[in-house]
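Cross-posted from the bioinformatics board.
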Amino acid sequence: MTNIEKYREAFISTFNLKEIDPSELEYQSINEWDSVGHMGLMAELEDSFDIFLETDDIIDFSSFKKGIDIMKKYDVNIMV
Amino acid sequence: MLKNKNIIITGCLSGIGHATMENFSKNGANLWACFQKESPDVYKSIDNLTSKYNIWIEPLFFDFLDPDKIKEAVLKIRHKKQIINGLVNIAGITKDSIFHMIKMDDIKETFEINFNSQILFTQYISKLMLRQNYGSIIFTSSITAFDGNMGQLSYGASKSALISAVKTLSIELSPKGIRVNAVAPGVIDTEMTRKAKEEQINNIINKTSLKRIGLPEEVANIYMFLCSELSSYITGQIIRIDGGLN
């Protein structure tokens, strides 16, 4: 599985997305991505990429796109 | 009571922490036991407990004044890939001094160890608990937080801060099945207590209904209760263990 596939899968499985494309998602743009869902997403990404997200990055993780930039700090390059 | 449960305990070197490590082992829990420093005695103690009770204990060595080491410890816990049933925060310090003699650096260090670092550690561990929708987190406050005590401004204030943290965390984490409570020990027979003035200790003991000092095992029993399913409907509470202090 490529990084972009793993990254997309983290959103799809955390928020149980069926018909929504995760690439346009922003924090609180759907009911599932609330503060509790956000921590679930962070946990899923940490497990998928074996990283440890800093609190500042968890706060800054405001959208699917912003997350791609943040992941670069952890040497995870996601090619869209 | 804790058979096959996996628990993290901080401050295992001595006093209440050490008694809790022994008590939890005796009751079948597997442990991540956190110590400030590595020593042959630590390994000897762990070897005794693991062979006697057929459990595993992973020792973790870190200083609560070093955030990078805290993170390293959390990563070791995460890499074990085990359910975390409970976190028992016991590590703490006291730097007693009457108000006009208190050094600001001592207040900062007391808060750093007794509050800030414990919150940081708990933030990391609770993130792991969120994945499993389950967990029990316990802090160690003190009766000083409620009643005050001569020379213990910084200690008491840091322990009061933990009470406030328990109230908020219990609300925030309950939707994810995580309970948060604290114990507030009174005068307990530990090295920390033995450093206090005998007269001061006796004064407090005389104010208890039971007229005696508490034992570390008696505090450990409450941690055990709060980590177990017996306390499944208890969260956001501070349980005094003070022999009926009036």
